[in-house]
């Protein structure tokens, strides 16, 4: 089980597979690298794929103290530096997308490209509805705990009758979070923003929007328009957890984007197999 130790002594778990240009897959809040199980096999055919668990998540350490997107991103940058990776393609779902944006502004030398799935550069509540949503989420977590919250979230993530197995897995994985750790991670995400620094994002960006995501497409298009090299692509028949409910579509979109940037990487991988 590969582990990386940060400067402050936190052990981060990560999985690694494939050869080629490095691709980093970053998971969502309260989840783990298992978000990417359906995507990794396809991407690792042409790339070196790394799937870490953020601190406080999955099989990584869960230390005391405040959590936050900037800290999660620093950990991931340290992991990349420790592995000797100089340029990585970053793919992030939800909170993972926030980490991707943070990396893109803090470490432009490290981020070759960025794919953001159902996420954005800002989690500051700007409307009454957003404030109510954030307050309700924290209240539900405090009152119901991770297991109770998981029971509420699973049907929203996977609403179709035939998605019962996905709902079961979501209840299991989200419900397994330690209450205090999950609460601190959630508090660390709410209020985060790099919106004012978007002009610092110099790499190409692909924004993937699920048809049934919580946030509307226009909200994502608004920040796409602020980026120098970005475009938005829609994932059909998909909810917030797109790599889980539509892994094929996600893998295809990411592969297509990476091929545009580095077609030689696919050619090299093909000749080596």
Automatic annotation (TrEMBL):
Organism: Stigmatella aurantiaca Sg a15
Family matches, as SUPFAM superfamilies: alpha/beta-Hydrolases
Keyword Hydrolase belongs to the record: yes
Keyword hit for Ion transport: no
Pfam families: Abhydrolase_6
Signal peptide location: none
Record-level Gene Ontology MF annotations: hydrolase activity
GO cellular component terms listed in the entry, alphabetical order: membrane
Domain AB hydrolase-1 residue range list: 23-253
Keywords, ordered alphabetically: Hydrolase
Protein name: 3-oxoadipate enol-lactonase
């Amino acid at each position: 089980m590969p582990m990386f130790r940060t400067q402050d002594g936190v052990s981060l778990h990560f999985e690694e597979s494939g050869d080629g240009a490095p691709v980093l897959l970053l998971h969502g809040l309260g989840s783990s690298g298992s978000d990417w199980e359906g995507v990794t096999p396809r991407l690792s055919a042409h790339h070196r794929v790394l799937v870490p668990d953020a601190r406080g998540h999955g099989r990584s350490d869960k230390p005391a103290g405040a959590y936050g997107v900037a800290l999660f991103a620093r950990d991931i940058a340290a992991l990349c530096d420790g592995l000797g990776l100089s340029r990585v393609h970053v793919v992030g779902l939800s909170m993972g997308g926030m980490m991707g944006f943070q990396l893109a502004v803090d470490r432009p030398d490290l981020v070759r490209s960025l794919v953001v799935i159902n996420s954005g550069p800002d989690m500051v509540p700007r409307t009454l509805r957003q404030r109510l949503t954030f307050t309700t989420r924290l209240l539900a977590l405090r009152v119901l705990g991770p297991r109770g919250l998981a029971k509420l979230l699973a049907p929203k993530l996977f609403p179709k009758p035939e998605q019962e197995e996905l709902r079961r897995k979501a209840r299991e994985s989200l419900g397994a979070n330690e209450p205090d750790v999950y609460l601190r991670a959630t508090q660390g995400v709410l209020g985060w923003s790099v919106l004012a620094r978007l002009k610092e994002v110099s790499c190409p960006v692909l924004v993937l929007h699920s048809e049934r995501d919580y946030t509307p497409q226009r909200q994502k298009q608004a920040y796409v328009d602020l980026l120098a090299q970005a475009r938005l692509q829609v994932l059909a028949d998909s909810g917030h957890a797109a790599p889980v409910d539509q892994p094929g579509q996600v893998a295809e979109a990411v592969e297509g984007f990476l091929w545009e940037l580095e077609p030689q990487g696919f050619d090299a991988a093909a000749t080596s197999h």
